[in-house]
């Protein structure tokens, strides 16, 4: 188990109670730099809530969250983003009326503002657009750069979200069901892309995903959630062999 002190992302004794309902209970886990962790578990297990508490859109009732060893439990989502945290949502948050290129340019611009104000923001000159087009090429969308984001397939929207995270300089990336709504024929290329981007950038990735084949193929370790608690946190092979995990799914296929 990763030492939570040295982890890229660490949560300790995390609990979340909303209106008397225990949404998260005593979740402790550490994710190492460059590690890809998949979070699985039945509907309502608390996977999205865990991401919410990590990204700061929800405050835990108890426990702490640390990014690269710094406590961010009470930090705003914006401050966590400045510490390198990026996130996608179960539903896409792209600017659908803007072009693919503009969506990435906005992310790069927000990063520029972090470090030096608007005057540093990337402009529209060819030189300023070069790194943005590189991010787009990285995810295979440079050819689509002038199309409205709303005209992209679900799979391509997910790729665009990855380009946005590259442009915003995220080092820890939370992906909530990145394969949701994606056609089965687009799954392999999206999966490969997530793996390649993660390897090339050494980003730390925490991915909620219920396609078990994707999880087995991509994840270094798998966190299994059940009724708000962490049931198992181990290699994919050990997790699928775990009887407790199988029972938690009540016979449903993992
Ligand atoms: N803002 C909220 N207020 C009240 N209950 C919530 C809220 N967010 C999530 N829940 C409840 O917490 C439980 C876990 O939800 P969620 O984290 O979305 O699960 P998962 O992503 O694993 O499907 C569910 O029972 C859900 O209804
Ligand atoms: Mg969810």
Automatic annotation (TrEMBL):
GO molecular function, one term: ATP binding
Annotated ABC transporter domain residues: 9-252
Keyword Heme listed: no
Key words of the record: ATP-binding, Nucleotide-binding, Transport
Pfam families associated with the record: ABC_tran
InterPro entries: AAA+_ATPase, ABC_AA/LPS_Transport, ABC_transporter-like_ATP-bd, ABC_transporter-like_CS, P-loop_NTPase
Keyword Protease part of the UniProt annotation: no
GO cellular component: plasma membrane
Annotated transmembrane regions: none
Name of the featured protein: ABC transporter ATP-binding protein
Protein source organism: Planotetraspora silvatica
């Amino acid at each position: 188990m990763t030492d939570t002190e040295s982890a890229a992302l660490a949560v300790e004794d995390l609990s979340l109670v909303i209106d008397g309902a225990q949404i998260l209970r005593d979740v402790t886990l550490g994710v190492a730099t460059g590690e890809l962790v998949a979070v699985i578990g039945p509907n309502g297990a608390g996977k999205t809530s865990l991401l919410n508490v990590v990204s700061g859109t929800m405050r835990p009732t108890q426990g702490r969250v640390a990014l690269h060893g710094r406590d961010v439990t009470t930090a705003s989502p914006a401050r966590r983003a400045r510490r390198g945290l990026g996130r996608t949502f179960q539903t896409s948050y792209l600017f659908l009326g803007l072009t693919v290129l503009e969506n990435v340019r906005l992310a790069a611009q927000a990063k520029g503002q972090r470090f030096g104000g608007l005057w540093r923001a990337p402009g529209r000159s060819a030189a300023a657009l070069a790194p943005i087009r590189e991010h787009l090429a990285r995810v295979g969308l440079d050819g689509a750069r002038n199309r409205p984001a709303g005209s992209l397939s679900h799979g391509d929207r997910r790729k665009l979200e990855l380009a946005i995270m590259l442009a915003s300089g995220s080092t820890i990336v939370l992906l909530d069901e990145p394969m949701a709504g994606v056609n089965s024929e687009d799954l392999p290329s999206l999966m490969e892309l997530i793996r390649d981007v993660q390897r090339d950038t050494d980003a730390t990735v925490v991915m909620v995903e219920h396609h078990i084949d994707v999880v087995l193929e991509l994840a270094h370790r798998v966190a299994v959630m059940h009724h708000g608690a962490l049931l198992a946190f181990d290699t994919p092979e050990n997790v699928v062999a775990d009887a407790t995990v199988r029972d938690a799914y009540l016979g449903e296929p993992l």
